[in-house]
What does this fold into?
Amino acid sequence: NAGVTQTPKFRILKIGQSMTLQCTQDMNHNYMYWYRQDPGMGLKLIYYSVGAGITDKGEVPNGYNVSRSTTEDFPLRLELAAPSQTSVYFCASSSVNGQETQYFGPGTRLLVL
Amino acid sequence: GQSLEQPSEVTAVEGAIVQINCTYQTSGFYGLSWYQQHDGGAPTFLSYNALDGLEETGRFSSFLSRSDSYGYLLLQELQMKDSASYFCAIYGQNFVFGPGTRLSVLP
It folds into this structure.
Protein backbone atom coordinates (compact mmCIF):
# COMPACT_ATOMS: atom_id res chain seq x y z
CA ASN A 1 0.00 0.00 0.00
CA ALA A 2 1.24 3.47 -0.89
CA GLY A 3 -0.91 5.03 1.87
CA VAL A 4 -1.72 8.69 1.22
CA THR A 5 -0.09 10.31 -1.80
CA GLN A 6 -0.08 13.99 -2.74
CA THR A 7 0.91 15.84 -5.87
CA PRO A 8 2.64 18.11 -6.58
CA LYS A 9 5.38 18.22 -3.93
CA PHE A 10 6.12 21.88 -4.56
CA ARG A 11 4.50 24.64 -6.60
CA ILE A 12 4.96 28.35 -7.14
CA LEU A 13 1.84 30.31 -8.11
CA LYS A 14 1.30 33.88 -9.10
CA ILE A 15 -1.38 35.90 -7.34
CA GLY A 16 -4.77 35.21 -8.91
CA GLN A 17 -3.81 31.90 -10.47
CA SER A 18 -5.69 28.72 -9.66
CA MET A 19 -4.56 25.16 -9.05
CA THR A 20 -5.69 21.81 -7.72
CA LEU A 21 -3.78 19.87 -5.10
CA GLN A 22 -4.28 16.15 -5.57
CA CYS A 23 -4.70 13.61 -2.77
CA THR A 24 -5.22 9.87 -3.14
CA GLN A 25 -5.40 7.11 -0.54
CA ASP A 26 -5.41 3.36 -1.14
CA MET A 27 -6.51 2.20 2.33
CA ASN A 28 -10.26 2.37 1.59
CA HIS A 29 -10.69 4.99 4.30
CA ASN A 30 -13.99 6.83 4.52
CA TYR A 31 -12.64 9.96 6.18
CA MET A 32 -10.32 12.38 4.44
CA TYR A 33 -8.99 15.76 5.52
CA TRP A 34 -7.09 18.77 4.21
CA TYR A 35 -4.88 20.79 6.54
CA ARG A 36 -2.57 23.73 6.09
CA GLN A 37 0.49 24.31 8.23
CA ASP A 38 2.19 27.68 8.35
CA PRO A 39 5.86 27.82 9.45
CA GLY A 40 6.31 26.98 13.13
CA MET A 41 2.59 26.50 13.65
CA GLY A 42 0.13 23.68 14.15
CA LEU A 43 -2.21 22.26 11.55
CA LYS A 44 -5.42 24.03 10.64
CA LEU A 45 -8.29 21.99 9.18
CA ILE A 46 -9.52 23.38 5.84
CA TYR A 47 -12.11 20.82 4.72
CA TYR A 48 -12.98 17.25 5.51
CA SER A 49 -15.08 14.46 4.04
CA VAL A 50 -16.81 11.52 5.73
CA GLY A 51 -17.38 9.64 2.49
CA ALA A 52 -17.83 9.96 -1.25
CA GLY A 53 -20.16 12.83 -2.08
CA ILE A 54 -20.02 14.36 1.42
CA THR A 55 -17.78 17.28 2.36
CA ASP A 56 -17.82 19.86 5.12
CA LYS A 57 -15.93 22.98 6.14
CA GLY A 58 -13.22 22.99 8.75
CA GLU A 59 -11.67 25.86 10.62
CA VAL A 60 -10.20 27.82 7.66
CA PRO A 61 -12.19 27.05 4.46
CA ASN A 62 -12.20 30.50 2.83
CA GLY A 63 -10.43 30.56 -0.53
CA TYR A 64 -10.63 26.79 -1.01
CA ASN A 65 -13.01 24.24 -2.48
CA VAL A 66 -13.09 20.45 -2.38
CA SER A 67 -14.93 17.57 -3.98
CA ARG A 68 -15.13 13.84 -3.18
CA SER A 69 -16.41 11.87 -6.13
CA THR A 70 -14.64 8.64 -5.14
CA THR A 71 -13.48 7.05 -1.89
CA GLU A 72 -9.86 7.30 -3.01
CA ASP A 73 -9.55 10.91 -4.16
CA PHE A 74 -10.01 14.21 -2.35
CA PRO A 75 -8.68 17.16 -4.41
CA LEU A 76 -8.32 20.66 -2.98
CA ARG A 77 -8.94 23.59 -5.31
CA LEU A 78 -7.52 27.11 -4.94
CA GLU A 79 -9.42 29.44 -7.26
CA LEU A 80 -7.69 32.82 -6.82
CA ALA A 81 -4.34 32.32 -5.14
CA ALA A 82 -3.31 34.91 -2.56
CA PRO A 83 0.00 35.33 -0.68
CA SER A 84 -1.84 34.35 2.53
CA GLN A 85 -2.25 30.87 1.05
CA THR A 86 1.49 30.29 1.06
CA SER A 87 1.77 27.24 3.30
CA VAL A 88 2.37 23.50 3.43
CA TYR A 89 -0.76 21.51 2.69
CA PHE A 90 -1.28 18.06 4.15
CA CYS A 91 -3.93 15.56 3.19
CA ALA A 92 -4.88 12.84 5.68
CA SER A 93 -7.26 9.92 5.92
CA SER A 94 -8.74 7.73 8.65
CA SER A 95 -11.02 4.72 8.81
CA VAL A 96 -14.47 4.48 10.37
CA ASN A 97 -13.14 2.06 12.98
CA GLY A 98 -10.09 4.13 13.83
CA GLN A 99 -11.11 7.70 13.32
CA GLU A 100 -8.71 8.92 15.94
CA THR A 101 -5.73 7.74 13.90
CA GLN A 102 -5.01 9.87 10.88
CA TYR A 103 -2.53 8.91 8.18
CA PHE A 104 -0.88 11.87 6.51
CA GLY A 105 0.47 12.35 3.03
CA PRO A 106 3.95 13.86 2.48
CA GLY A 107 2.58 17.37 1.92
CA THR A 108 2.54 19.97 -0.85
CA ARG A 109 4.61 23.12 -0.36
CA LEU A 110 2.88 26.08 -2.01
CA LEU A 111 4.41 29.51 -2.55
CA VAL A 112 2.19 32.33 -3.83
CA LEU A 113 4.06 35.35 -5.18
CA GLY B 1 -14.77 26.88 20.30
CA GLN B 2 -11.89 24.58 20.94
CA SER B 3 -8.30 25.54 21.74
CA LEU B 4 -5.17 23.79 22.95
CA GLU B 5 -2.00 25.07 24.56
CA GLN B 6 1.46 23.48 24.58
CA PRO B 7 4.91 24.72 25.57
CA SER B 8 6.72 25.99 22.49
CA GLU B 9 10.04 24.29 23.22
CA VAL B 10 11.48 21.58 25.45
CA THR B 11 15.13 20.50 25.69
CA ALA B 12 16.46 17.29 27.23
CA VAL B 13 19.53 15.05 27.04
CA GLU B 14 19.82 11.62 25.53
CA GLY B 15 18.58 8.86 27.84
CA ALA B 16 16.45 11.22 29.93
CA ILE B 17 12.67 11.35 30.39
CA VAL B 18 10.66 14.33 29.16
CA GLN B 19 7.01 15.29 29.58
CA ILE B 20 5.16 17.49 27.07
CA ASN B 21 2.00 19.01 28.45
CA CYS B 22 -1.21 19.93 26.68
CA THR B 23 -4.09 21.90 28.17
CA TYR B 24 -7.32 22.37 26.30
CA GLN B 25 -10.64 24.16 26.25
CA THR B 26 -13.56 22.40 24.60
CA SER B 27 -17.24 21.75 25.15
CA GLY B 28 -16.90 18.08 24.32
CA PHE B 29 -14.64 15.62 22.60
CA TYR B 30 -14.00 11.92 22.10
CA GLY B 31 -10.33 11.86 22.96
CA LEU B 32 -6.85 13.36 22.81
CA SER B 33 -4.26 12.33 20.22
CA TRP B 34 -0.53 12.92 19.90
CA TYR B 35 1.44 13.26 16.67
CA GLN B 36 5.16 13.53 15.93
CA GLN B 37 6.54 15.60 13.07
CA HIS B 38 10.18 15.74 12.01
CA ASP B 39 11.40 18.82 10.16
CA GLY B 40 10.20 18.74 6.57
CA GLY B 41 8.12 15.63 7.19
CA ALA B 42 4.50 14.71 7.69
CA PRO B 43 2.85 14.18 11.08
CA THR B 44 2.74 10.58 12.26
CA PHE B 45 0.36 9.19 14.85
CA LEU B 46 1.81 8.31 18.27
CA SER B 47 -0.95 7.76 20.78
CA TYR B 48 -4.61 8.27 21.62
CA ASN B 49 -6.49 8.57 24.93
CA ALA B 50 -10.24 8.08 24.85
CA LEU B 51 -10.45 7.56 28.61
CA ASP B 52 -8.73 9.15 31.58
CA GLY B 53 -5.48 7.54 32.57
CA LEU B 54 -2.24 6.37 31.06
CA GLU B 55 -1.73 4.68 27.70
CA GLU B 56 1.68 3.09 27.10
CA THR B 57 3.20 2.36 23.70
CA GLY B 58 6.84 1.35 23.97
CA ARG B 59 8.96 4.32 25.05
CA PHE B 60 5.99 6.67 24.68
CA SER B 61 3.12 7.08 27.13
CA SER B 62 0.20 9.47 27.03
CA PHE B 63 -2.08 10.62 29.82
CA LEU B 64 -5.47 12.30 29.93
CA SER B 65 -7.43 13.92 32.75
CA ARG B 66 -10.78 15.26 31.55
CA SER B 67 -11.56 16.80 34.95
CA ASP B 68 -8.37 18.89 34.72
CA SER B 69 -8.64 19.55 30.93
CA TYR B 70 -5.08 18.33 30.70
CA GLY B 71 -2.98 15.71 29.04
CA TYR B 72 0.66 14.93 28.50
CA LEU B 73 3.02 12.88 26.39
CA LEU B 74 5.87 11.15 28.22
CA LEU B 75 8.95 10.10 26.31
CA GLN B 76 11.40 7.77 28.05
CA GLU B 77 14.98 6.78 27.20
CA LEU B 78 15.26 9.73 24.87
CA GLN B 79 17.15 9.22 21.63
CA MET B 80 18.54 11.75 19.18
CA LYS B 81 15.92 10.69 16.64
CA ASP B 82 13.20 11.89 19.03
CA SER B 83 14.14 15.49 18.19
CA ALA B 84 10.97 16.66 16.46
CA SER B 85 7.80 18.65 16.99
CA TYR B 86 4.98 17.05 18.95
CA PHE B 87 1.34 18.02 18.56
CA CYS B 88 -1.64 17.22 20.72
CA ALA B 89 -5.02 17.17 18.98
CA ILE B 90 -8.59 17.02 20.16
CA TYR B 91 -10.80 14.58 18.31
CA GLY B 92 -14.38 15.84 18.44
CA GLN B 93 -16.63 16.61 15.48
CA ASN B 94 -13.35 17.04 13.65
CA PHE B 95 -9.75 17.49 14.64
CA VAL B 96 -8.20 20.56 16.28
CA PHE B 97 -4.43 20.56 16.66
CA GLY B 98 -2.35 22.35 19.24
CA PRO B 99 0.47 24.72 18.24
CA GLY B 100 3.15 22.08 18.78
CA THR B 101 6.15 21.61 21.07
CA ARG B 102 9.61 21.45 19.57
CA LEU B 103 11.73 18.87 21.40
CA SER B 104 15.49 19.08 21.14
CA VAL B 105 17.47 16.09 22.39
CA LEU B 106 21.08 16.89 23.22
CA PRO B 107 23.93 14.35 23.33
User: Anything to note?
Assistant: The CA atoms of residues 23 and 70 of chain B lie 4 Å apart. The radius of gyration of chain B is 13 Å. Chain B touches chain A at residues 30-31, 33, 35, 41-45, 48, 50, 87, 89, 91, 94-100 (CB under 8 Å).
